[in-house]
Design brief:
By secondary structure, this protein is α/β, with parallel strands linked by helices. The chain is built from 10 helices and 12 strands. The strands form 3 sheets. Strands 1, 2, 3, 10 and 11 form a 5-stranded parallel β-sheet that branches. Strands 4-5-7-6-12 form a 5-stranded mixed β-sheet. A hairpin with a 2-residue loop joins strand 6 and strand 7. Helix 3 packs across helix 4 (about 95-110) and helix 4 packs across helix 5 (about 130-140).
Length: about 300
Amino acid sequence: MINALSVDVEDYFQVTSFDGVVSRSEWDSQESRVIGNTQRLVDIFARHQVRATFFVLGWVAERFPRLVRQIAEAGHELACHSYWHRLIYDLTPQEFRDDLRRAKRAIEDASGQLLTAFRAPSFSITRRSLWALEVLGEEGFTIDSSIFPTRHDRYGVPGAPSQAHLLETPAGPLVELPMTVVKFGRVALPVGGGGYFRLYPFELTRRLLTRVNQVHRRPFVFYIHPWEVDPDQPRIRVGSLLSRFRHYVNLRSTEAKLNKLLSSFQFDTVSTVARQSLVHPPRAAQVASALPASR
C-alpha cells in the first residue's frame, strides 16, 4: 500500500508554539536554518527513492525561491502551507483568502508548479473554521490535508472520517486526506508524524502504521518538519514548558527513525495517495457538509 509522505516547510522559529515569543516582525532577524534542513530531507528521500509533498510557507518561498525550485527539480510535489503560518480559526475568511493567495502565488512563481493541495498551519481547520474549505475550493485547490480526527488543545475535529473522502462545498468537491489516527474504542490516537513520531518508540509507530495499512486497509499520512532533523538548532528558552517539550523532545533520534520508516513502508505524494484512495475507497464517505458560508 502506498502512503503519503509530506513535509511542512517552515523554520524552527515559525512554529505555533513560539507564536507569542518570536513575533513575525522578527522572523527576518532570526538565524534561518530552513535551507540546509530541507535539503537534508530531500537527500534522505533521494537515498530511499521516494517522492514527497512539500507544504511550503509562502514566506519561505518568497525569501528562498531557489530552495523551492530545487525541491521541484528533485521530482517532488509542491503544496501550500499558508503565508504567515497563522491559525485559520483566528482569521476572518477574507484574511485567510488574502494569505492563501499570496502564498500560492509565491510558491507557484518559485516552483513552476500549479498548486492543488493545502495543509493548514497546526491543522487549524476545525469546526470553528470549516468555512476555509469553501475558500480553498474557490481559490483552485482540490485537495486538503488539514483535518485531524482527534482531540487536541490546538486542533482536531473529533469524529471526522479517518479515511480519504470527498467534501461537497458550495465551491465544488474537495478531497480531504485527513491526518492519521488509530482508533481504540472512542479514543483516536494520533500517529505518523511530528511530535508523535519523535515521542513514540519507533516500534510502536511501526506497529500502529502497519495496523492502519493491514487491518484498516487504508494508507496513512506521514508528516515531518525540516527543523525536526536539526538537533543543533538555536534554543528558544522562553515560552511554556509544554511548548518547549513538544518542540524539542527526541530531536536527536528523528533522522534515524525516519530512515527506518522509509525502509519499512512505501510512499508517494499526497495527490497520488488521494487519487488512489478515491479509486479504491474503504467505504469512502461522500460527505455533503452544510458548511458555514465563507462570507
